[in-house]
Amino acid sequence: MIYRGAFHAHSKHSYDGQQPLPALCAELRRRGDHFLLLTEHDDTLDAAAYERIRAECAALSDAQFLAVPGLEIRCWRTEREQWHIAALGVGAWIPRGPIPEVVENIRRAGGLSVFLHPHKYSRQIELAEIARFDGLELWNGKEDGHFAPRWRTLRLARAAAAHRTGPVLYCGHDLHDFDGIGPLALEIETDALTQAAVLSRLRDGNFMLRARGFRFPAARGPNALQSLGMLCWRGTYESYRALRRLPLVGGAVSAARRAWRPSDSGRRPEE
Ligand SMILES: [Zn+2]
Ligand SMILES: [Zn+2]
Questions:
Q1: 208-211 sheet: strands from edge to edge
Q2: CA 37 – ligand 1 centroid, Å
Q3: Lowest CB count within 10 Å: 90, 173, 183, 251, which one?
Q4: Rounded distance from Cα 30 to ligand 2 centre (Å)
């Protein structure tokens, strides 16, 4: 059976998450998701808190829905630069530290490391540097919107995928509340919905990434035609955003939206 799930999510266990974990799982279930790969910020947590998150995930899981515990850890690339690394399904608390050390600790704790939102960091990222991760977040719904990933991340991901040893690709919500749940999803084919089965498919890159209008294998990434499509979407989206910044156009769009949907006045879409 094919199971669909959400990657990169923050509940109230994270300092900036808005929903209790049971409410988040209930909402994802209601929307038809089968699993959640949790990535709680480590800022306000410790080993005891992580044990409670693991126990809560186990209690919220059954044959129809699986909550996989995990962390988003600040790691040091250099003294001045910190990267955010997801630790999926780790069986123990992972303390902060230099990237190679954290990645090794994640592996030892039976989990997977995923390099999150790479566009936020230095433009100089070497392929050898990201080869150590199990995964790379190609597409982050909160940062990139739901039309297409950033071109720079896509180029990095395609280069990594061409090197067969590169990390497999993920698309994530980076959700902090219900309104952060978007169309990006992971699809895993397995007989039983267990943490071991899901982690094993993720480790092997044996799953699909799904977005609005796109579906491609996590191990290979989008093909040339899909990449071209994404480039076109990205260009259109960036142009729209640039146009919205012009006072006259921005005012007209807001007025049209208010007239069309009066209850929706202050919200901006796809950011
Ligand atoms: Zn982050
Ligand atoms: Zn996050």
A1: 66-68, 35-37, 2-7, 185-189, 208-211, 214-217
A2: 15
A3: 251
A4: 22
